[in-house]
Design a protein that fits this description.
heterodimer, A: 342 residues, mainly alpha, B: 539 residues, alpha+beta, Dipeptide-binding Protein, domain 3, 3 domains, 12-stranded mixed β-sheet, globular
Chain lengths: 342, 539
């Protein structure tokens, strides 16, 4: 039995990611070319003539063989060039870099909200099965999975903005008048704090609340359910009974012994949910006018904008790969068994 | 707490009761000298000559750049204002003369006009900009050709402030075509400084940077989010815009835009869906709906001659009598349009050259049955195709037509074509038997519309229609002055033929609906279907 170090584990995981990335590059390339629609016709605009369409097709390199196009694409990719986005007007890389932080900031706040509600709810429900907390947990979980995010979003806007007037206008990351903070990370809340612009920070934060909650409501269901299930299982196991019998404080038993051991499946779920949320963003972004990646991908799809779609899918894949890597590394921290197994 | 049916029902009843709880606080309001506009479709470029620039880009171009001339404004009977195609007004050119033979126009450029950088506008800049419009490829040269402008040798610098355009023959379309957004005037020195050998027209520079001297300047530009414009205090080409700043913000969801306008957080919600427009107009009160028919635009049903038996006149006539026009007008247009059906024409002759005008088609199933019988066709299978991006009106329309066709034994399946594929399938390859069309022309003449919709060669002719007399009439009339004695008879003949041949069945002329706060004044409905904020004031 070989003993594997943590560094070794991490390196092995990274190597495993390479075939995934290569596969995604090939698949996205082929898939985008199988989409209906001819980008040359789309961008030749109204009043197009066969000549102007041919000219644009040539400019886009679409008149070359598929293999040649793929070769050119690989070369560009190696230089970090994702091509020109036709819907956005500029380079795809630039567009993704501008929009990624917006989506990330929203997703992270959404996840923070989901964790903040789901973890305590799951733990409480598990410690008091069939009490009102447990039923509340079940109700929230059912609502969370059954309400589509855009509907939650519209409902929240209707109640908190339209009727009550408490929430700020759902117009994106900041109101009409406030300029964005100086660019550092692209996270408006963080950048505003660093620059000491507290009004901007507050503005960005209040704009985040409703979209983050709509996203979070959808995400908290699986987390709460998994926390409850894992906690129930752990709480009924022998070592907990032993710990209780030994007269340890209930708090210690619950937090140090039970919760820590229940965390593993929860962590996996959080990983899946996070990736899922990046996808669910599309509709929330549309409802809240959030200038993120989702709305961009949607626009690109409608226009058969190859470069943008490929860039979007590739970015998402990279994020999944990195995320899975992080979760795997976190595993090794939570679960010591991984270190010596092999 | 138990989750049982009663609890859940009470819960949903509470949600359903929400609209009744409307305790709307007073409108928040927007700053007095700023116009805040919510847009669903957002400009993706500051340079409308660039490949891939979308329609909303015309909006910013109109405000950031000058053209030599513009269109006038007329007030309608209901007090609303629309552009006036028959009046050309000075913009960068303070005056112009048309040569006696009609084959050249000489423009006198304002001597006090400057670009944002401070340089004077010269005839050299104008020529360079016109050269660019015919030289960049794609849509701009095609629009220039509509006004008989094809090459740089037609654009002549007479002196620093005099510019002449020569034409191969006189045309009524030439001067209006100089007023459309395409031939806008750029600071040629500034662009040339930022151009490269691969990109001699500086498109990479102009799509992100302002290089003109229009009524407004770019204060900030965050693509896909917000464009803030500030008034150009040195602008001389027209009346000073009343508002200091214009904020354009992208808000993709129409439901969100409606909430914003009703709450008073935006001044204008541009291009409102017909359903919202109808509801808000009916509610009255705090939001004003300015809607008017889009000039020279028709929502219609094209019948493709390539697919038998749609090439049979009797079948096409029968179809024109089973379309439930009224229902479509209510369910697809929500009444926001002008009806283009149900006219009675004496002897099949159109009463005027007005375009679009109501056609002599109406729902009459018995007549349709008789026509099918006369054609000797019991029924057949076909397909109705529509563009999914325009599903808001096309989907209900297609379903209603399907229902109507079933009454005379025509079994039509519905093909929802993704927006990206529509142009290829319906317009280039012409592979949709019954298809819904929405063509509109910038220049407001029936013969101009016919040039795109009814000419055999045209991309927009999704009926694959060809009629030799129509071809001849279009060529003859397109550039003919409207006061030519032959003009009106030609146009009326053109309308009579396309009404008799039934290649395309007009349904209605759509509205462009705009929701505004009551204090917003001076809005003009434009042929380019975009917002021009220059004349807008707030009271």
């Amino acid at each position: 039995m070989a003993v594997r170090t943590r560094t070794g584990l991490v390196l092995a995981r990274m190597l495993q990611a390479l075939p995934t990335i290569a596969g995604v590059i090939v698949v996205t390339f082929v898939m985008t070319r199988m989409l209906p629609g001819d980008p040359a016709v789309y961008f030749a605009g109204p009043m197009a003539t066969p000549e102007s369409i041919a000219e644009i097709r040539h400019q886009l390199g679409l008149d070359r063989s598929l293999f040649e196009q793929f070769w050119v694409y690989l070369g560009d990719l190696a230089r970090g060039d994702l091509g020109m986005s036709l819907v956005a007007g500029g380079p795809v890389t630039e567009e993704i870099m501008r929009r990624l932080p917006a989506s990330m900031e929203l997703t992270m706040f959404g996840l923070a909200f989901a964790l903040g509600v789901a973890l305590p709810l799951g733990v409480l429900a598990a410690t008091r099965p069939n009490s009102w907390v447990d039923h509340l947990c079940r109700l929230i979980v059912t609502l969370g999975v059954s309400l589509p995010t855009f509907f939650t979003g519209l409902l929240l806007i209707y109640v908190f903005y339209y009727l009550a007037g408490i929430a700020p206008a759902p117009v994106g990351r900041l109101d009409f008048i406030t300029p964005p903070p100086p660019h550092l990370t692209g996270f408006y809340t963080f950048d505003a704090l660093i620059a000491g612009q507290f009004a901007t920070f507050w503005g960005a934060l209040t704009q985040l609340v409703l979209p983050a909650v709509s996203l979070g409501v959808f995400a908290l269901a699986p987390i709460a359910r998994m926390t409850r299930g894992a906690m129930l299982q752990v709480l009924s196991s022998d070592f907990i009974r032993a710990a209780r019998a030994a007269g340890l404080k209930p708090r210690t038993v619950l937090v140090t012994y039970a919760f820590r051991n229940a965390l593993l499946p929860v962590l996996t779920t959080v990983g899946i949910v996070f990736s899922f949320m990046l996808g669910a963003n599309v509709l929330v972004e549309k409802v809240f006018a959030w200038p993120g990646l989702g709305s961009f991908a949607l626009e690109a799809l409608v226009a058969s904008d190859y470069a943008s779609i490929q860039g979007f899918v590739l970015t998402m894949t990279m994020m999944f790969v990195v995320l899975n890597l992080i979760i795997d590394i976190l595993y090794t921290l939570v679960d010591r068994r991984l270190e010596v197994s092999g | 707490m138990l989750i049982n049916r009663r609890n859940v029902l009470t819960g949903s009843a509470a949600v359903a009761a929400l609209p009744l709880l409307r305790i709307m606080p007073a409108a928040a309001g927007t700053p007095g000298d700023v116009l805040i506009v919510a847009l669903g479709d957002f400009p993706n470029s500051l340079d409308i000559h660039r490949k891939g620039s979308n329609r909303p880009s015309y909006m910013t171009s109109m405000m950031l750049y000058d053209r030599l001339v513009g269109f006038g404004v007329k007030t309608n009977a209901d007090g609303s204002a629309t552009y006036d195609a028959s009046v050309i007004t000075p913009e960068l050119a303070e005056s112009w003369e048309i040569a006696a033979d009609g084959k050249s126009i000489t423009f006198h450029i304002r001597k006090d006009a400057t670009f944002a950088g401070g340089r004077s506008v010269t005839a050299q800049d104008v020529k360079w900009s016109f050269d660019r419009a015919v030289g960049v490829g794609g849509f701009p040269p095609a629009q220039m050709r509509a006004g008989l402008m094809a090459g740089p040798d037609q654009f002549v610098v007479v002196d620093d402030h005099t510019f002449r355009v020569d034409f191969p023959k006189p045309s009524k379309l030439s001067l209006p075509d100089i007023a459309v957004p395409i031939p806008f005037v750029l600071d040629s020195e500034l662009v040339k400084k930022n151009a490269t050998t691969e990109d001699p027209w500086g498109r990479e520079f102009v799509y992100k940077n302002h290089a003109g001297g229009g009524a407004y300047l770019v204060e900030s530009y965050e693509p896909g989010q917000q464009i803030t414009l500030t008034r150009n205090e040195n602008w001389k080409s027209g009346p000073k815009p009343p508002l200091k700043r214009v904020v354009l913000r992208q808000v993709p969801s129409s439901a969100t835009r409606r909430a914003l306008i009703e709450r008073g957080d935006v001044d204008i919600n541009f291009n409102v869906p017909a359903k919202d427009a109808k509801e808000m107009a009916a509610a009255g009160g705090n939001v004003v709906i300015a809607g008017g028919p889009i000039a020279n635009s028709i929502h219609g049903v094209a019948l493709n001659y390539k697919y038998k038996p749609l090439d049979n006149l009797l079948v096409r006539q029968a179809i024109s009598h089973v379309i439930p026009y009224e229902q479509i007008f209510e369910a697809a247009a929500y009444g926001r349009g002008t009806k283009l059906y149900g006219a009675t024409w004496a002897d099949g002759k159109s009463p005027s050259i007005a375009w679009p005008q109501a056609f002599p088609y109406s729902t009459d199933v018995d007549k349709a049955r008789a026509l099918m019988k006369e054609a000797g066709i019991d029924g057949f299978e076909t397909e109705i195709g529509f563009n999914l991006s325009l599903a808001h009106w096309m989907e209900p329309t297609a379903l209603l037509i399907q229902e109507g066709l079933a009454k005379i034994g025509i079994k039509a399946s519905i093909n929802k074509v993704p927006g990206a594929n529509w142009r290829t399938l319906a317009l280039i390859e012409k592979k949709v038997p019954i298809n819904l069309t929405n063509f509109g022309g910038w220049l407001n003449y029936g013969e101009y519309y016919a040039f795109f919709q009814y000419r055999a060669e045209s991309m927009f002719n999704s009926s694959s229609y060809r009629n030799e007399e129509v071809e001849r009439l279009i060529v003859e009339t397109l550039h003919m002055p409207v006061d030519d004695p032959q003009h009106d008879p030609n146009v009326r003949r053109l309308i009579d033929i396309v009404a008799a041949d039934v290649p395309m069945i007009p349904l209605y002329q759509p509205y462009l609906d705009v929701a505004m706060q009551p204090g917003v004044k001076g809005y003009v409905s434009q042929y380019h279907r975009q917002l021009d904020a220059r004349p807008i004031a707030k009271g």
